Amino acid sequence: MTVTSLPRTAGATAPRRRRSRIVLARLGGGLAVLLPIVLISTFISYSLGALSNSDPAATILGQDAATPAAVARLNRALGLNHPLIVQYWNWLTQALHGNLGRSYFSQIPVAQSIGQRLPVDLSIAVLAIILAVIIGGGAGTLAAVYRGSWFDRGVTLACSAASTLPAFVVGIILVVLFAVTAHLLPANGYVGPSTSVPQWLAHIILPALALSLAVSADVARQLRTSLVEVLEQNYIVGAKVRGLPYRRVLVRHALRNAAGPALTILGNDFPLMLAGAVAAEAVFSLPGLGQLLLESAQTRDIPVVQGLLLVVSSFVIVVNLIVNVTLNWLYRTDDGIGT
Amino acid sequence: MSRTELWESRPLRSKPPESKPRDSKPRKRKGRTLLRMPSVWIALAILLGVAVLTVFGSTLAPQNPLTINANALFQGPGAHHLLGTDYLGRDVLSRLMAGTRLSVLTALEAVGIGLVLGTIPGVATVFLGRGFDFAANRVTDALMTLPYIFFAVAVTAALGNGLVQAMVPVGILLAPFFFRITRAATLEHARAQYVEAAELMGASKLHVVRVHVLRKVLPTIAVTTASMTAAALLAVSFLTFLGIGVQPPAPTWGGVLSSDLDYLNQAPWAPFIPGLLIAVTVGALNALADAFRDRRTPGMLAVPEPLIRTHSTLEPADDDRQSQVA
């Protein structure tokens, strides 16, 4: 790192050697925390299969062909004769290479059937996050700026109401309003973006709206609380006194410092959004991961269930890592390390 | 509008009438202000109603929830069927009343599991040293990355289709919330000076936990229990909505909703009834939790803790910050 890339307030920075040591310690500490999380959550996901009292070999072979010799041969082929911890390790290393095994019934690779359905949930979830940021962020900011007004009270009331309504109820209400009564949008089905982008949007907007509502409420509530607090700080008053335009003060000074809790809640609510996506799939009959999960749970297709749990919890971890990195960037200090 | 006006618009913070004599017992007065809030009254009334339905629901039901009547399909709310009939002509009110018990009891099952698995390590971790604390926190973080619906459905794949089985993982996944809140609250009190003084006087750890810590932590646990019960009820109705763990004719809240979904063209108003029932019950629990929390930290919304704490737990200074939040 060259001297020119240091922040302008170089006098306040730590010596370079100490800085790199702090950064390394942070990275090491982060890994020390993250690695156990990944290992534990994947182990829980995998060991569900071992909990199962079903006999996969007998299921695959069928009643007639399941002679003890055939069962033993198949168990060896599937690697089920090893101890659980060895099975888990083989599964995890294979998963890191993109191989999640094959379905017991259809013999289709698990990674393939998950890959086919992932775009559905991904489009709904991403659109829902965008909607939650727009709706929740907008409502929270306006409520804080006009605090005490009728708008503020309306937002508070709407947030309380929205957080009691589960995504599947909201979804059904949206179907009744926009599809059954008004015939504005399709009530079910999915069209890929490669076929037709407007059709794709029309099919995912209602599900995304359904699962973004509760998250929007959480975001709005957190943002309002922290923004009200920040707006009363001296530096905001100072910036206003110095004649900076209000919009600039609000965005550059206030929102940047108040966004932390709202961002955190967005990451915390991500598992909730995935649950909402399952609900949305059921309400709008979309061919997504939730449907795959329900089907494979009914048929006890353990490799598919394990693969789904792995993919879903990886998504939660990645999204929350992004949130943490963004939080560090938001709260960065002059020495460039962050809190 | 000025801040003072806002201040006075809240019933909780309105000044007590001056003619009243000063109360000598502050704790008693606190309880009374809580009961004076209309939202608490309404919430308690709703929860009492749900409790009655849980115990007597199937006996109080005006009609048999399973009786099929081909002459009365998709009837709107009326004198004979107060909340109308479904696609088989079954009485919706009776089905909802009879379905209350399973929904509420399985929700309580999950909360009970979470309460036990979360609070006991939460209190213990403060006294068992850094190694246990680190391990317990990593397990907590790992559990928080597993979405409960996926986990619950996956467990039914392993253990068989049943609501009681399905709610065990939900309870396990509620435990991290209990754990974190109990741990933060315990830390706050375990490091207080009077606890130090008690320890210096020779009090055992068990005595400190029982007398000094547990009593202070219980209100926090109560608030969490209320909001977690709300979450568990949502989980139950969601699972029954997906058809997990219920044999078809048996009535449940989520099941009524999901059968309404297939006949939206015939009866678009039907899903609003079970939807409203779920929302009102969940809302009552949340309102109760909010009222308790608001009394302890007026007007404050707790700063949320990130799901995965990349380095906060490695810095002891952070423990103090967390305990202030809780």
Any chance you could write out the topology, listing elements then pairs?
The complex is a heterodimer of chains A (about 350) and B (about 325).
Chain A: H1 16-51, H2 56-65, H3 68-78, H4 84-96, H5 110-145, H6 150-164, H7 167-181, H8 197-231, H9 234-241, H10 246-268, H11 270-284, H12 289-298, H13 302-330
Helix pairs in contact in A: 1-4, 1-13, 2-3, 5-6, 5-8, 5-11, 6-8, 7-8, 7-11, 8-10, 8-11, 9-10, 10-13, 12-13
Chain B: H1 3-9, H2 26-36, H3 38-60, H4 92-127, H5 130-144, H6 148-159, H7 163-190, H8 193-200, H9 205-242, H10 253-261, H11 272-296, H12 316-325
Radius of gyration of chain B: 23 Å
Shape, per Cα inertia axes of chain A = flat
- Kindly estimate the percentage of residues of chain B that lie in beta strands according to DSSP: under 5%
Give the mean pLDDT of chain B. Answer: 75
Instruction: Name the shape of chain B in a single word.
Output: elongated
Provide keyphrases for this structure:
heterodimer, A: 339 residues, mainly alpha, 13 helices, 76% helix, disordered N terminus, B: 326 residues, MetI-like fold, 0% strand
